[in-house]
Amino acid sequence: MNHRIVVLGAGYAGATVAGRLARRLHRDEVEITVVNGDPEFVERVRLHQLASGQDLPRRPLHDLYAGTGVRVRQAWVTAVDADRRTVALTGEHGAETLGYDTLVYALGSTAADHGVPGVAEHAHNVAGKQDALRLRARLGELEPGGTVLVAGGGLTGIEAAAEIAEAHPGLKVAIAARGGVGDWLSDKAQRHLRVVFDRLGITVHEHADITRVEADRVVTAASGEIPARVTVWTAGFTVHPIAAATTLEVSGTGRIVVDGTMRSVSHPDVYAVGDAALADGPGGNPLRMSCATAIPMAWQAADALAARLTGREVPETTIGYSVQCISLGRRDGILQRVTPDDQVTSTVVAGRTGARLKEFICAGAAWSVAHPTLLLPGRRRHLVATAEAGHRLVTR
Q: Which residues form the FAD/NAD(P)-binding domain (predicted)?
């Protein structure tokens, strides 16, 4: 029987793993199955664009993996049994169980409310496609002068605020952060950010700790109120609770703890990539949740798994960073150079050139996912029967 590889999630990390494995392993010796709730690959880094009213290219997973041997199952994951090596699913045919020999867990993350009352009832977010579409519809209902507040001063909040303000110039857009908005950026990048926000008419509320979200406003710790017909919550992400309900070793935040090859430290037949995994970067600092992390993690996991299955030396490299990219609408942006451990430098490219570079990077990431068999050498290797490789291997 062929070695069964099941990939849970088809975001940047999961989709990349599946395509890379299909390029490295003989399809008559493995069964690679991708399980995803959405029938399409979703460019999560563009969901603020979708929310603002723009349409994104459609990339059906069945088309993406056509001719690769990768099977696509549209279903939602409800549980994982890491000891019995099974996954519980629910889809159009009801509940079912899928067995695996190797599992790649890439279920990503969703918006974190941090226990703030009213977020679930009244706030929108851009953490998923359906969330972005609901926000898009709500923004379309607002009359001119309607107030929109983006809660969170990180990358997602900055991009969402700029995109909404540019696409809906008749709305009053504001952004609020517990600390400073973009305060980790270099001085040059922060100055450019302020200029763009001023041009777009975005009001900035810093050191505004939101303690409650209501239907038409938010309340801050200083007993202040900020009007908001629409609140967009971007104050962080959290992983789905599925992994924490298993016997897998997870962190205090529910992320699967992995080694340098993205393999679970407690279950060697499980790999985790993307936001759902806790991996160390340069200096032993945890890698942050981002597309810039997810794709290198996927490369690392796929190459390590393929090496173990084919009896080759397992590669292991430290994943580091080079830039942070921020879109500020469609015509402006910031490319902030960073060190491998994600510390900002004084090198910044901003304005239209920054926007073009950001677009180039985003388009390149999507292209690499949509063309999973074009970026690697064409040699597919045979599996070997070794204890390290796992179960149900073909001997060559």
A: 4-302
Boundary of a domain, candidates 233, 263, 285 = 233
Which domain-ending residue is among 233, 259, 290? 233
Residue among 148, 152, 180 at smallest CA distance from 51: 148
| pLDDT one-digit tens code per residue, 102-139 | 999 999 999 999 999 999 999 999 999 999 999 999 99
Give how many domains the chain has, as a whole number: 2
- Residue carrying the six token digits 């695996």: 100
- Give a yes or no: residue 311 inside a domain: yes
Examine residue 358 and state whether it is found in any structural domain, yes or no.
Answer: no
CATH of the domain at 258: 3.50.50.60
Residue-range definition of the domain harbouring residue 206 = 115-233
In a domain, 129, yes or no: yes
355: exposed, middle or buried (Cβ count in 10 Å: 0-12, 13-18, 19+): buried
pLDDT digits (tens, 9 = 90+) for 18-35: 999 999 998 889 999 999
CA 392 – CA 31 distance, rounded (Å): 11
Is residue 370 a part of any domain in this protein?
no
pTM over 0.85: yes
> Which residues contact residue 371 at a Cβ distance below 8 angstroms, ignoring those fewer than 6 apart?
none
104: Cβ–Cβ under 8 A, 6 or more apart, which residues? 5, 6, 7, 8, 14, 17, 18, 270, 271, 272, 273, 301, 305
**Can you read off the two tokens belonging to residue 303?**
């190459």
